[in-house]
Automatic annotation (TrEMBL):
Region named Disordered: 29-81
Name of the protein in question: Cell division cycle 20 homolog
Gene Ontology biological process terms, A to Z: anaphase-promoting complex-dependent catabolic process; positive regulation of anaphase-promoting complex-dependent catabolic process
GO molecular function: anaphase-promoting complex binding; ubiquitin ligase activator activity
InterPro entries listed in its UniProt record: Cdc20/Fizzy, WD40/YVTN_repeat-like_dom_sf, WD40_CDC20-Fz, WD40_repeat_dom_sf, WD40_rpt
Keywords (A to Z) from UniProt: Repeat, WD repeat
This protein's GO CC annotations: anaphase-promoting complex
Biased composition (Low complexity): 32-65
Originating species: Kryptolebias marmoratus
One protein family per Pfam: WD40_CDC20-Fz
WD repeats: 222-263, 305-336, 376-395, 439-471
Gene3D superfamilies associated with the record: YVTN repeat-like/Quinoprotein amine dehydrogenase
Family: Belongs to the WD repeat CDC20/Fizzy family.
Limits of the CDC20/Fizzy WD40 domain: 176-470
Length: 499
C-alpha cells in the first residue's frame, strides 16, 4: 500500500496543473502578438483615458469589487462627431500622448499656474478640450477674460455718419465793395468790434457795416480831402472807435451817438497803428515813436516808447494787458511792459531775426506767452516767440509777403494774410505749422485781416477794393451752445468822462 501511495504522489507532481512562477521569458514574437491582441481589446475604450492591463492574474484588480456600474467618461459615450476645431484637435492629441508619459515629481508649476497659462495663451483650459463634443453651445470664457486678439483685429470702425468732419469752403461767403481803399502795406484799415460792427477806412472816411443786419453807416469824414485814415481800433466793449489819421492825430468816436469825443495830438507823423489796453490807448507813428494815451484825463499823453528807427506799423497788446508788442519797418520786434510795471524806455526783448518790415503781430489766446510775427517782402517768414525765454520756437518760410496774422481759437490754428506775390489767405495748424487750407480770391495783395467776435469768420481787405468774408472756423453745434451759455460783459472800462 505504501508503494501505491508513493506513485500517486509522483503522478500528482508531474501533472503541472499549477502555473510555473520561475518559467523562462516569453519569446519576442510571442510578446509582440500578445501586445497587438491587447491593443485590439482596448480599441473600444475611451480615447481620453489610459488603461494599464496586467499580464498576471495575481495582481490586484484595478476596479473595486462589488461595483458593476462604470464611472462615466468626461468625453461622453456617444460617437456623434460634429464640426471639429483644428486647434482643439491638436491640443487633444497632445493630451493623449502626454497622459502616457511618467509624471515628473519635481515639477515646480502647480495646477493652478498651468490653468492660468492655458487660459491666457489658448483662451480656455486645455484639460477641458474635447474631441467629441455633443453640446451645441460653445465653451464659456472664464469670468473677466478678455481676448486681446479680438480687440486688436476685430475692432469695429466708427461709422462715417458719426465721424466729425470739418468742411472749409475755399470761396468767400460774402464780398463787400471797398472803393478808394488805400493800397498801402503799412496801414491798418480794418477792425471788427465785439458788437459785430465791422469798421473800414476808405480814403478819408470811416464806414461801419453791421454784420448782423447788413446795414452800412458812414461814421466820419475828414475835413481836408488830401488827408486820409491810417488806422482803426475798437475798445474791448465795442462802444468807442479810435481813428489814427495822416495829420498826426488820434480821434476818439462814440459810435452809438456818432459823435467825436476828442482829438488827441501828440505825434509828429501819421499814426499808422493803434491798440487798446483798458483805458490806455497806444499809438504807433511813422516817426518810430509809440505814445500811451490815458483817455480819461485831459492830459492824455502819459508816456513815450522809443525803440524803432522807422515807422511803427504793427502794435498789439497781449490779452492779459501785461505786454505790448510792436513791429516796425526797421525789421524789429520789440516787447514792452505795461506802464504800471515801470517807466523804462528799454524793451524787455528786442528781436531782429526778420529781414523785412514787421506789420503782422498776433498773440495766442490760449497760450499767453506766445507771440507770432510775420515779415514783409524781403523776409516772408512766420516766427513764433516765447516771451518768457525770449527764444524763437519755430520759423516758417511762406514764400510771400505777410500783411496780417490772427490766431483762430476754435480749431487752434494760425491764419496768415499775404501780399506779393500770392495775394491769398493760408490756414496753418498750430503749433506744427502744417498747411490746412489756402483761400484764394483776391486779385491784389491782402492788406489787412481781422477775426469776427465769435472767431468763426475772417474778414480780409485787399488792394482790389474788396472785403471778403471767409467763414472757415465755425464751431460745431455742441461747442457753439456751450459758448453761448457763458455770460458776456458789456460794461465799459472807461468809467470817467472823456474830455
Amino acid at each position: 500500500m505504501a508503494q501505491f501511495g508513493f506513485e500517486n504522489d509522483i503522478h500528482s507532481i508531474l501533472k503541472l496543473d499549477m502555473p510555473i512562477t520561475n518559467a523562462p521569458m516569453m519569446a519576442r514574437w510571442q510578446r509582440k502578438g500578445s501586445s497587438s491582441n491587447a491593443a485590439a481589446g482596448l480599441s473600444s475604450l475611451s480615447p481620453g483615458k489610459s488603461v494599464n492591463v496586467s499580464q498576471s492574474s495575481s495582481k490586484t484588480p484595478s476596479k473595486t469589487p462589488g461595483k458593476n456600474k462604470k464611472t462615466p467618461s468626461k468625453m461622453g459615450g456617444d460617437r456623434f462627431i460634429p464640426i471639429r476645431n483644428s486647434k482643439q484637435m491638436d491640443v487633444a492629441n497632445f493630451l493623449l500622448t502626454k497622459e502616457n508619459e511618467p509624471v515628473d515629481a519635481n515639477a515646480t508649476n502647480s495646477s493652478e499656474t498651468q490653468k492660468f497659462w492655458s487660459v491666457s495663451l489658448n483662451g480656455y483650459n486645455i484639460h477641458d478640450a474635447k474631441i467629441l463634443h455633443l453640446g451645441g453651445q460653445p465653451l464659456n470664457a472664464p469670468e473677466g477674460y478678455q481676448n486681446n486678439l479680438k480687440v486688436l483685429y476685430s475692432q469695429v470702425t466708427t461709422p462715417v455718419s458719426l465721424k466729425k468732419t470739418r468742411y472749409i469752403s475755399l470761396t468767400a461767403e460774402k464780398i463787400l465793395d471797398a472803393p478808394d481803399i488805400r493800397n498801402d502795406f503799412y496801414l491798418n484799415l480794418l477792425d471788427w468790434s465785439s458788437r459785430n460792427l465791422l469798421a473800414v477806412a476808405l480814403h478819408n472816411s470811416v464806414y461801419l457795416w453791421d454784420a448782423t443786419q447788413g446795414d452800412v453807416t458812414m461814421l466820419m469824414k475828414m475835413e481836408q480831402e488830401e488827408d486820409y485814415i491810417c488806422s482803426l481800433s475798437w475798445t474791448k466793449e465795442g462802444s468807442y472807435l479810435a481813428v489814427g489819421t495822416s495829420d498826426c492825430k488820434v480821434q476818439l468816436w462814440d459810435v452809438e451817438n456818432q459823435k467825436r469825443l476828442r482829438s488827441m495830438a501828440s505825434h509828429t507823423a501819421r499814426v499808422s497803428s493803434l491798440s487798446w489796453n483798458d483805458h490806455v490807448l497806444s499809438s504807433g507813428s511813422r516817426s518810430g515813436l509809440i505814445h500811451h494815451h490815458d483817455v480819461r484825463v485831459a492830459d492824455h499823453h502819459i508816456f513815450t516808447l522809443s525803440g524803432h528807427s522807422q515807422e511803427v506799423c504793427g502794435l498789439k497788446w497781449s490779452p492779459d494787458g501785461r505786454y505790448l508788442a510792436s513791429g516796425g519797418n526797421d525789421n524789429l520786434v520789440n516787447l514792452w511792459p505795461r506802464v504800471s510795471e515801470g517807466n523804462s524806455s528799454e524793451p524787455l526783448h528786442r528781436w531782429s531775426e526778420h529781414q523785412g518790415g514787421v506789420k503782422a503781430l498776433a498773440w495766442c489766446p490760449w497760450q499767453s506767452n506766445i507771440l507770432a510775427s510775420g515779415g514783409g517782402t524781403s523776409d516772408r517768414h512766420i516766427r513764433i516767440w516765447n516771451i518768457n525765454s525770449g527764444s524763437c520756437i519755430s520759423s516758417l518760410d511762406t514764400q510771400s509777403q505777410i500783411s496780417s496774422l490772427v490766431f483762430a481759437p476754435n480749431y487752434k490754428e494760425l491764419v496768415s494774410a499775404h501780399g506779393y506775390s500770392h495775394n491769398n489767405v493760408v490756414i496753418w495748424k498750430y503749433p506744427s505749422l502744417t498747411k490746412v487750407a489756402e483761400l484764394n480770391g483776391h486779385e491784389n495783395r491782402v492788406l489787412n485781416m481781422i477775426l469776427s467776435p465769435d472767431c468763426s469768420t475772417a474778414a480780409t481787405a485787399a488792394g482790389d477794393e474788396t472785403i471778403r468774408l471767409w467763414k472757415s472756423f465755425e464751431l460745431d453745434p455742441i461747442k457753439k451752445k456751450t459758448s453761448e451759455r457763458k455770460p458776456k460783459s458789456t460794461s465799459s472800462v472807461i468809467h470817467q468822462s472823456i474830455r
